[in-house]
Amino acid sequence: MRAYASTGRRLLLAAALALATLTAAPAPPALHAQGADPLPSWNEGEPKQAILDFVEATTDRSSPDFVPPGQRIATFDQDGTLWVEHPMYTQVIYCLERVPALVKEKPELKDEEPFKTVLTGNKEAIAKLPMKDLEKLLIATLTGMSVDDFQEQVKQWLAAARDPRWKRPFTELAYQPMLEVLRFLRDRGYKTYIVTGGGQDFVRVFADQVYGIPTEQVVGTMGGTKFGYDGNGKPFLTKEPKLLLNDNDAGKPEGIHLMIGMQPYAAFGNSTGDQQMLEYTKAGEGRRLSMLVMHDDATREYAYGPANGLPETKVGTFTQALFDEAKKDGWIVISMKKDWKRIFAFEGSGQ
Amino acid sequence: MRAYASTGRRLLLAAALALATLTAAPAPPALHAQGADPLPSWNEGEPKQAILDFVEATTDRSSPDFVPPGQRIATFDQDGTLWVEHPMYTQVIYCLERVPALVKEKPELKDEEPFKTVLTGNKEAIAKLPMKDLEKLLIATLTGMSVDDFQEQVKQWLAAARDPRWKRPFTELAYQPMLEVLRFLRDRGYKTYIVTGGGQDFVRVFADQVYGIPTEQVVGTMGGTKFGYDGNGKPFLTKEPKLLLNDNDAGKPEGIHLMIGMQPYAAFGNSTGDQQMLEYTKAGEGRRLSMLVMHDDATREYAYGPANGLPETKVGTFTQALFDEAKKDGWIVISMKKDWKRIFAFEGSGQ
Fold it and tell me: d(Cα B119, Cα B112) in Å, to the nearest integer?
């Protein structure tokens, strides 16, 4: 009876301690400690080791670089960092493919530019549309409807749309190694944010499903909304053609301050549009991590950017200057070709 | 030995179940289940019961009104809802009291309006300053400095400043009954947000300390920032005199969409500036809770607003029309006099 009571007490104590640990830190660091690799789609090398070391250093209470859970913020660019951005940003494809439905709702648009050209499907002609026509396209497909209707439109499109190369839903084109980084950081108490030049409302539609990132942790290019009432007096919000913040370049740290209010401890990008976010992150006190995804794998994904002697493109510009800054300031460059065992979940583990 | 093993197994199982519960839901609902009152500073009555019933209905898995944890959003106005707003918003006091330090930094301002009048300390004259002078005051005290410097200025002021009536730090003037509501909601898996007409960056400085609300869950009137580099090439953000969103009236649901992206399930306000937020909340599907704090206790706090036959004021306007809308649409009106056992933590429990 004495042994029984004492064992019971010991087990209860162990449970209580486990509970205390769990409530103090968001997640048990058991996975890594038990030897399971939190980044199985990464090859061994500097980038993988940099992530493991950073997380260990900032989440181990005995480390001089320990960061309290409330301050563990990690930000991720989306296009080209978390999923494919070539040959065209997914949101631009959405805007183009939305045109037929739009013209069905507003037939008067079918003879108006840029809708007329977009409806022909002529890619060269579409690529030549002037900036003011592109703006008109964005305004027509991304604003003027209620917030709820917009979400529904994007949802329906995502379910049916297929990317031109892999013939899969765009939501399957997230990079498996980066999904592992997101999960690993969250398992260690980090709050993961998307900080994208894409539309905040657009990315919110699928961020949870694809990345496990909730709506309120999506920072993107922000448009205004307008509060009003429908015919039954029920309030709703309409998406307005009013730009609040262009979440690119300097807009990224500005958007981070607006939406989060703290400097990230880790940031991931892939282009000059992420430069200021990576600088801002790295400039914080204590140990910080800035990483750049380099697209150098034409076989498994795409190769672009002059850092690797590759052709420069309009989408996802990774200049030699950015590469040099990364090397100088201790950012880590990820080679998709060398550092990633596999690119997409649908490829299987490749083992 | 058999009993020993079986007891051990049972206890481990219980611990495992406890762990599973804890990881599934953010916090154990033990307090309430064990009979402890989560709202001890509230008198029994409709408002207290409405909060208890709402939380029970939306967090009990077997309830038809169950809300998944990720969607449990509750929003709180600050001035007059979470802390004292009379006779003047705390942030306005800050701007006024900041003037001497500002003039010390920029002596050329001492003969310029409105700084000249503010420096006299003449309350009647200050109250008569025209709107354009007030705007100049806000711009001079809330913008032009780095984000970090601003935080430091507010922190230092908060440590030294005392409110005119209770002679206490403003941070002690939070309403104890509302602090209990915040904690109770969080204990049951709600994410609590401040949605204030006050400056987002201002409120962020003390939101965690006073309300347990982290920086990223403060939605307020938003100003732009500008990214730049200091003399050593280190990046920093400067607060700009550019209004991105006036988080009052219709701006509250617009700010909620911008920062959270979801309709709240519960919202708390105290004035016409909160009307649209309360409408927006109540308009959502399923069970929602909209509540209004009514200031009708001149002895323990202040009494104002015509709903109770009280004088209307510029600060925290609670019109008869708002009162009528609340009654018609099933919002719950909280009487500070009747429903709150005590107002402030420093009063003691009053038992």
Answer: 10
Per mean pLDDT, which range of A78-82, A196-200, B76-80, B307-311 is the poorest? B307-311
The DSSP symbol for A307 reads G
A258 neighbourhood in chain B, CB within 8 Å:
200, 222, 225, 244
Give the distance from residue B206's alpha carbon to the nearest chain A alpha carbon, in angstroms: 13
What is the rounded distance in angstroms from the CA atom of residue A264 to the CA atom of residue A206?
Answer: 23
Cα B167 from Cα A114, distance rounded (Å) = 65
Residues 199-218 of A with CB under 8 A from B: 200-201, 204, 208, 214-216, 218
Q: B184-207, pLDDT tens digit by residue?
A: 999 999 999 999 999 999 999 999
Q: Could you give the CA distance from residue B67 to residue A58 in angstroms, rounded to a whole number? A: 34
Provide the sign of the torsion angle of the four alpha carbons A54, A59, A61, A66, taken in this order: positive
For residue B14, which residues of chain A lie inside 8 Å, CB to CB?
A: 15
Helix locations, A219-283, DSSP H? 251-259, 275-282
Does A225 contact B254 at a Cβ distance shorter than 8 Å?
Answer: yes
**Closest CA of chain B from A296, distance in Å:** 29
Which of B348, B60, B81 shows the shortest CA–CA distance to B196? B81
* Count of residues making up chain A: 351
Please indicate whether, in this complex, the C-beta atoms of A19 and B18 are within 8 angstroms of each other.
yes
pLDDT digits (tens, 9 = 90+) for A95-105: 999 999 999 99
Nearest-by-Cβ selection for B237 from A235, A245, A254: A254
Residues 218-257 in A contacting B (C-alpha not used; CB under 8 Å): 218, 222, 224-227, 234-237, 244-245, 250-251, 253-254, 257
Helix H or strand E encompassing B194: strand B191-199
Q: Which pLDDT tens digit goes with each residue over A202-250? A: 999 999 999 999 999 999 999 999 999 999 999 999 999 999 999 999 9
Which residues numbered 303-322 in A keep a CB inside 8 Å of some CB on B? none
Q: Could you give the 3-state DSSP secondary structure of residue B296? A: strand
Is it the case that residue A54 has pLDDT exceeding 50?
yes
Q: Would you call A258 and B11 a contact, using CB atoms and an 8 Å cutoff?
A: no
pLDDT in tens, B244-289: 999 999 999 999 999 999 999 999 999 999 999 999 999 999 999 9
- Rounded to the nearest integer, the mean pLDDT of chain B is 90
Q: Where does residue A11 fall: left (phi above 0), alpha (psi -120 to 50 degrees), or beta otherwise?
A: alpha
Q: Which of A194, A122, A205 is nearest to A161 (CA)?
A: A205
pTM: 0.89
Are A4 and B7 contacting, i.e. CB atoms less than 8 angstroms apart? Answer: yes
